[in-house]
Amino acid sequence: MAGSCKYETMQTGAMVRDYTCLTFSKPNEEFLFAGTKSGDFCSFQVKNKMFVFSQSVCAQGIKNIQAVTKDKICVGGGDGQIVLFHVDQNFCQSLMQTQLYGSIQGLSSSQDGVQMLAATNKGFLYRIRVSDFSQMLLAENHTEPVVHVEYLAGQSERFITSSVDGTIRLWDANDYSVRARCVNQMGVVENVYPMCSLFTDEIILSGWSDGKVRAFRVDNCEQLWQIDNAHKNGVTAIALSHNQKFIVSGGQEGEIRVWEIRSRELISHLKEHTSKVTKVQ
C-alpha cells in the first residue's frame, strides 16, 4: 500500500526557536505544545495553525513535554526541574514543581493521569504522583562502564561497584537497591573515577584514577579522608588486612604499597610487577 505525507507549517510570527519535543493536548489534540532549547514552551492551535502563547520554564532547555490530563501538561528540563502547568486556551499557570538529579531524558504519564515516570541522564528512574508531586526513586544505575565489583568477605547480601561515571555504589542484593552512593569531595570530575573499591560495615575504601586512596562512611557517604599521591597514574587494586589496621594498594605501574590506616602513612613499598596490579588479597 502506497501513501503520502504532507506537512503544514505553524505560524510563529516573529518568534524564532529551536524545538526539542512535542505533545498534543488531551483528549482531542486541539492544541500542540512544543518545548524549546531556550527553556520555554510554545502553544499552537492546531485547527488554524496559529501561535497562542509561550511560557518560560527552566534553564538548559526543555527535554520533554507531556500532556497529563485535559487541562494539565508536565514539562521536564535540562536542569532537572519538572513543572506541572494548568493550561486553558490562551492561559497558562504553574501549579507544582520538583527537582530531580540529572537532566530529564524521559517523561511519561499514566493513562489516568494519576502518576508519571521520569528518567534522568544520571541513571535515575522516578515515579511522581501528580496530585502532590511527591517522588519515589524506583531504580538507579551507573551511566558509564563498571570497572570493578566486590562482595563483602563472607557475605552474599551486599556488593559494591565502581564506575567510570565517577561514582561508587553499595548495593543490597536482596532487592538490588542502592544503600550508599559515593563521589569524591569535588563532585564528579572528568577522567577522575574509582578503579577499585571494598567495604566493611562502617567504611568504604577506594582507589582512584588520580592516584588517590579515598575512604567514605557507609551510613551517609561522607568522605572521611584521602591519601594523596598513593600511586602514579592511578590506584588499580586495594585490600584491607584482616585486623583492619592496614591497607594494601596496587598501582598502574606495578607497585605494591602498604599503608597504616590510622595515620595513613606508608609502611612498605614493593616493586616486582612490570605492568599494572589487577588484584591484591
UniProtKB/TrEMBL annotation:
Pfam families in alphabetical order: ANAPC4_WD40, WD40
Coiled-coil annotated spans: none
WD repeat feature ranges: 139-181, 228-269
Keywords: Repeat, WD repeat
PROSITE patterns: WD_REPEATS_2 (PS50082), WD_REPEATS_REGION (PS50294)
Protein origin, superkingdom: Eukaryota
Domain Anaphase-promoting complex subunit 4-like WD40: start-end pairs: 203-280
Protein name, per record: Anaphase-promoting complex subunit 4-like WD40 domain-containing protein
Species of origin: Strombidium rassoulzadegani
Classification lineage: Eukaryota, Sar, Alveolata, Ciliophora, Intramacronucleata
